[in-house]
C-alpha cells in the first residue's frame, strides 16, 4: 500500500529537522567549543613546554614544567566534563598519586603518567577537533545556506558585469544558474539532504576526537588494574571479617547454646538415673537431649556448607545438580566442563549460581530457570536464564553488586541482560 503524498512530504521534512534535535545540537555545541578550547590549550601547553624545557637546568624551569602539566590536567578535566555532558562519553578520572608538601606535589606532577598523557592530549586535540568543526561548517552551515537558497539568493550573490549588462549570480554550476524556479529546487533539495546527513557526518567526524579523549584523559590499563585490585582486596578483607563475625554469631547463638542445653540435660539424666526416677520422665529428658544434639549437628552442617559446600568436592556439575534439586523452582542444569577449574573458581561459581537462583525464585516470577556452565580454554562461563518479568540491574538492590565484587576477586566479569518483561540472562565469566 502506497503512503499518502502528505505523509511522504512530512517524512522528508522530518529527517533534516532531526539535525536540530536536542541530542544532535549537544554534539554540535561540543564540536563548536572543542576546537577553540583545543587551540588555546595547545598554545599554552607548547609555550610552557618550550620555555620550561629551555630553563629546565634551573629550578624555575622545573616549576614551569610542573605548572604546564597541572594546566594540562585542568584542561583535561574541562574536556571530560564537556564530553560527559554533551557527548554522553563518561571518562574515568585518572588516579592522583599521594603527595606531601609543595616539592612532593611538584615531583608527583613531573613524574606522574596521567599528567603527561594530559599534555599529549592538549598537543593532539587540535588535529582531531578540527574534523568536527569542519563537519559543522560543511554539513550544518553549508547545508542550511543551500536549503534556504530561495530566501537568501537576493542577498547571497555576486555581481557579474558583461559589457553594459550587470547580472547577480548566486549559484552557478557548469554555466547553469540555479536562481530561478524550478532550478532553485536543486540546491534546496541538496541542502535538505546534507542537513539530514549532518548528525551522521558529525558523529563520525568526532570519532577520532572521542577516541583520543578516552585514551589519554582516563586511567591506563595498568591503573585500572591496580584500582580494581585495591577495591577487590578491600572487599575481600571486609567479606572475610563479615564471614568470621557471622560464624562467631552462629556458633554463639545457635550451636553453643544447644550444646550447653545438651550438657544440662545429660546432667539431669544422670541425676534421674541415680535417684531411680520414673521411666516416662527419664525418657522425656532423653528425647529433649537427643533433639538438641540433632539440631546442633544440623546447625554445624549448615555452617560448614556456608563456608565450603562438601558436595563441591565431587565437582561443580554435581554441586549444581544438588543445588537445582533443592531450589524452590524447577531448574535445568546443562554443564560442559572440559577441565576442572581451581577450587576457588568452583566455589565462586557455585555461590553465584545459588544467589542467582534465589533471586529468581524471590523476584522474577518465573516458572523455572536454566543454568548453563561451560569450562574451556581456561574460562568458566556460568549463565542463569529465566523467563520472568525482567527489570533486574546491577546496583539495583538485587544482590548482583555483591556477586560482581565476588567475581572480580579472580578477574571475572558479570553482565546482566534483563529488559522489562524479561527474560533475564545473567552471565558470569571466571578465568582460571
UniProtKB/TrEMBL annotation:
Q: Where is the Putative sensor domain?
A: 31-215
- Residue ranges of every copy of the Signal transduction histidine kinase subgroup 3 dimerisation and phosphoacceptor domain listed in the record: 245-312
In alphabetical order, the GO MF annotations are: ATP binding; phosphorelay sensor kinase activity; protein dimerization activity
Q: Which GO terms describe its cellular component?
A: membrane
Instruction: Give the E.C. number(s).
Output: 2.7.13.3
For this protein, the record's PANTHER family field holds: NITRATE/NITRITE SENSOR PROTEIN NARX-RELATED, NITRATE_NITRITE SENSOR PROTEIN NARQ
Official protein name in the record: histidine kinase
Amino acid at each position: 500500500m502506497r503512503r499518502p503524498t502528505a505523509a511522504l512530504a512530512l517524512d522528508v521534512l522530518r529527517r533534516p529537522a532531526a539535525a536540530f534535535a536536542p541530542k544532535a545540537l549537544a554534539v554540535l555545541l561540543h564540536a563548536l567549543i572543542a576546537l577553540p578550547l583545543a587551540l588555546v590549550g595547545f598554545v599554552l601547553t607548547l609555550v610552557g613546554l618550550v620555555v620550561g624545557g629551555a630553563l629546565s637546568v634551573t629550578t624555575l624551569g622545573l616549576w614551569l614544567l610542573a605548572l604546564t602539566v597541572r594546566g594540562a590536567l585542568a584542561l583535561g578535566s574541562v574536556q571530560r566534563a564537556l564530553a560527559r555532558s554533551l557527548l554522553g562519553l563518561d571518562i574515568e578520572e585518572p588516579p592522583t598519586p599521594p603527595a606531601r608538601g609543595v616539592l612532593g606535589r611538584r615531583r608527583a606532577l613531573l613524574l606522574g603518567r596521567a599528567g603527561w598523557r594530559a599534555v599529549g592530549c592538549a598537543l593532539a586535540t587540535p588535529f582531531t577537533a578540527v574534523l568536527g568543526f569542519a563537519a559543522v561548517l560543511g554539513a550544518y552551515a553549508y547545508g542550511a545556506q543551500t536549503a534556504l537558497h530561495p530566501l537568501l539568493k537576493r542577498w547571497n550573490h555576486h555581481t557579474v558585469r558583461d559589457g553594459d549588462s550587470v547580472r547577480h549570480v548566486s549559484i552557478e554550476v557548469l554555466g547553469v544558474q540555479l536562481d530561478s524556479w524550478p532550478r532553485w529546487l536543486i540546491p534546496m533539495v541538496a541542502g535538505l539532504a546534507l542537513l539530514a546527513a549532518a548528525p551522521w557526518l558529525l558523529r563520525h567526524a568526532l570519532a577520532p576526537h572521542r577516541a583520543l579523549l578516552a585514551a589519554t584523559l582516563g586511567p591506563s590499563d595498568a591503573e585500572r588494574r591496580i584500582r580494581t585490585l585495591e577495591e577487590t582486596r578491600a572487599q575481600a578483607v571486609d567479606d572475610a571479617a563479615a564471614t568470621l563475625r557471622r560464624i562467631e554469631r552462629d556458633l554463639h547463638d545457635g550451636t553453643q547454646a544447644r550444646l550447653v542445653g545438651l550438657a544440662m540435660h545429660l546432667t539431669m539424666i544422670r541425676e534421674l538415673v541415680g535417684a531411680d526416677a520414673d521411666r516416662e520422665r527419664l525418657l522425656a529428658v532423653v528425647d529433649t537431649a537427643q533433639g538438641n544434639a540433632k539440631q546442633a549437628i544440623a546447625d554445624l552442617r549448615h555452617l560448614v556448607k556456608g563456608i565450603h559446600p562438601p558436595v563441591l568436592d565431587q565437582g561443580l556439575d554435581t554441586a549444581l545438580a544438588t543445588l537445582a534439586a533443592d531450589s524452590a523452582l524447577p531448574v535445568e542444569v546443562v554443564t560442559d566442563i572440559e577441565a576442572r577449574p581451581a577450587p576457588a573458581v568452583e566455589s565462586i561459581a557455585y555461590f553465584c549460581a545459588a544467589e542467582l537462583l534465589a533471586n529468581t525464585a524471590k523476584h522474577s516470577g518465573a516458572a523455572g530457570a536454566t543454568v548453563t556452565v561451560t569450562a574451556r580454554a581456561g574460562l568458566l562461563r556460568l549463565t542463569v536464564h529465566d523467563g520472568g518479568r525482567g527489570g533486574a540491574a546491577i546496583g539495583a538492590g538485587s544482590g548482583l553488586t555483591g556477586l560482581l565484587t565476588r567475581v572480580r576477586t579472580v578477574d571475572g566479569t558479570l553482565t546482566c541482560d534483563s529488559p522489562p518483561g524479561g527474560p533475564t540472562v545473567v552471565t558470569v565469566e571466571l578465568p582460571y
